[in-house]
Structures are given as C-alpha cells and as structure tokens.
Amino acid sequence: CRQLFRSPSMPSSVIRPILKRIDRPQDRDTPVKTKRRRSVAGSPGEEAAAAEPVGAGEGFGSFCHEEIENLLANDHRELIGDFSKAYLLQTVEGKHQDLKYISPEMMVAVLTGQFSSLIESCVIVDCRYPYEYEGGHIKGAVNLPMEQDVEEFLLKKPIVPFDASKRVIVIFHCEFSSERGPRMCRFVREKDRACNEYPHLHYPELYVLKGGYREFFPQYQTHCEPQDYRPMHHKDFKEDLRKFRLKSR
C-alpha cells in the first residue's frame, strides 16, 4: 500500500478516493472450509495474508478519520516522520523510493488554499541557484540553495504551528527534482533527527515536487513570478553555475 491518505474533510475534487473497505462474508463451518483451514494452518503465508494492507479503489466515505489512522498504525511507511499521523497529501511515484513526491497539480491545490483548514504553514524550498530562482519561481517559494541556508532558515528557529491541530509541511524542489531537491530533503530530515529525541521531529512531513520547476512552469505559469523559466545550464550564466557548484561541494 503505497498511496497516502487524507482527512475525510478534504474536498473530493482534489484527492481521488484511495481507500476501500473489504467486507468479508461470514464464514460458516462447512466440512470443506474446515478442511481448507486445517490445510493452511501454520503455513508461512498465513500471517502475511492476515496482515495484508487494505487496497485502493472504492469510495472513501465509509471510513472515519480514526479508522484510517488505525489502518495505518502498523505501517510506518504511510505515516509522517514522527509516526503521529498519516501523510496529508496524495503522492505519486518518483525517482527516489524513500521520498514522498507530489504532483504539480497537488502543489497548486496547496497554493490555492484547498488544504487551509488542515495546513497552517507550507514552506516551499526552491533549491536551485539564485540566478535560476530570479529567472522565475513558484510564488511564495524561498530560495535556499545551500545546506547552511536551509539549516539556518528551518532548524535554527523551527516553525511551530499556533494551532496544534494543524500541520507545517515542507515541499522541496529544484529544476527537475532529480538531485538537488531530494538531497536537501534528506539533509533536513537527517539534521532534524539529530536535534530531536526519536521519533520527534520539527518537520515530520516532507515532500518533493515531482518534475521540479521544469514540469511545474509550463502547466501553471500564473503561479510563478516572474512568469519565466531560466534553466541551470543557461548560456549567460556559465560563470555563476561554476561558482555555485564549487560552493556546494
């Protein structure tokens, strides 16, 4: 079960239903079923089958929030970093299996306030070099290209929600979200772990924008400022690229 789940209060237009209840018929003790149970008793696959996660597909409405949390309680892959609750945003498959990716569409849902009742603060960390950021970036994103930058911004004085029932989420990206964004996401988690008693974290809910700015910009230019895209390998910024690559080593 690799999908991530949301609160039932969330608009159905944003998140596709991703859970279903499996209703199993009541078994009657017929000779055939009794024999079948005996034949598999103690087999290695029995325990694994019993622990099989609920599949995806049907409507979400039959589950209450507490039931969803209980379903996920035994699978830490589906819980945020401190294991306190399920991830809020639906994710997609990405290059790095240990990270949680969201689509550009999901990013826009966050930007347009469709999760405002559940998210108090969303920090968008643009890990590209300053000349890339200045050439066009997602509105509200903060440019933190170096590890010391992100450590200073996020961890020196951690962002704490005023409303304890709401979340602080961090979304990382670079040009393609292939190397710089994922690397910075892992760096924050590592530093966050180091300064907290396990499993507590300042930022338990981290995401990476799949496809980075390169994929986001063509689809949602109105959410960018300026409405332009400057690639890392721009011919006019070769010296800047060389300088920042040296600094990042």
UniProtKB/TrEMBL annotation:
<keyword id="KW-0132">Cell division</keyword>
<dbReference type="GO" id="GO:0051301">
    <property type="term" value="P:cell division"/>
</dbReference>
<keyword id="KW-0904">Protein phosphatase</keyword>
<keyword id="KW-0131">Cell cycle</keyword>
<feature type="compositionally biased region" description="Basic and acidic residues">
    <location>
        <begin position="20"/>
        <end position="32"/>
    </location>
</feature>
<dbReference type="GO" id="GO:0010971">
    <property type="term" value="P:positive regulation of G2/M transition of mitotic cell cycle"/>
</dbReference>
<dbReference type="GO" id="GO:0000922">
    <property type="term" value="C:spindle pole"/>
</dbReference>
<protein>
    <recommendedName>
        <fullName>M-phase inducer phosphatase</fullName>
        <ecNumber>3.1.3.48</ecNumber>
    </recommendedName>
</protein>
<keyword id="KW-0206">Cytoskeleton</keyword>
<dbReference type="GO" id="GO:0004725">
    <property type="term" value="F:protein tyrosine phosphatase activity"/>
</dbReference>
<comment type="function">
    <text>Tyrosine protein phosphatase which functions as a dosage-dependent inducer of mitotic progression. Directly dephosphorylates CDK1 and stimulates its kinase activity. Required for G2/M phases of the cell cycle progression and abscission during cytokinesis in a ECT2-dependent manner. The three isoforms seem to have a different level of activity.</text>
</comment>
<dbReference type="GO" id="GO:0005737">
    <property type="term" value="C:cytoplasm"/>
</dbReference>
<feature type="domain" description="Rhodanese">
    <location>
        <begin position="118"/>
        <end position="225"/>
    </location>
</feature>
<dbReference type="InterPro" id="IPR001763">
    <property type="entry name" value="Rhodanese-like_dom"/>
</dbReference>
<keyword id="KW-0963">Cytoplasm</keyword>
<comment type="similarity">
    <text>Belongs to the MPI phosphatase family.</text>
</comment>
<dbReference type="InterPro" id="IPR000751">
    <property type="entry name" value="MPI_Phosphatase"/>
</dbReference>
<dbReference type="GO" id="GO:0000086">
    <property type="term" value="P:G2/M transition of mitotic cell cycle"/>
</dbReference>
<dbReference type="GO" id="GO:0110032">
    <property type="term" value="P:positive regulation of G2/MI transition of meiotic cell cycle"/>
</dbReference>
<feature type="compositionally biased region" description="Low complexity">
    <location>
        <begin position="40"/>
        <end position="53"/>
    </location>
</feature>
<feature type="region of interest" description="Disordered">
    <location>
        <begin position="1"/>
        <end position="53"/>
    </location>
</feature>
<comment type="subunit">
    <text>Interacts with MAPK14 and 14-3-3 proteins.</text>
</comment>
<dbReference type="InterPro" id="IPR036873">
    <property type="entry name" value="Rhodanese-like_dom_sf"/>
</dbReference>
<dbReference type="GO" id="GO:0005634">
    <property type="term" value="C:nucleus"/>
</dbReference>
<keyword id="KW-0498">Mitosis</keyword>
<keyword id="KW-0378">Hydrolase</keyword>
<dbReference type="Pfam" id="PF00581">
    <property type="entry name" value="Rhodanese"/>
</dbReference>
<dbReference type="GO" id="GO:0005813">
    <property type="term" value="C:centrosome"/>
</dbReference>
<dbReference type="Pfam" id="PF06617">
    <property type="entry name" value="M-inducer_phosp"/>
</dbReference>
<keyword id="KW-0597">Phosphoprotein</keyword>
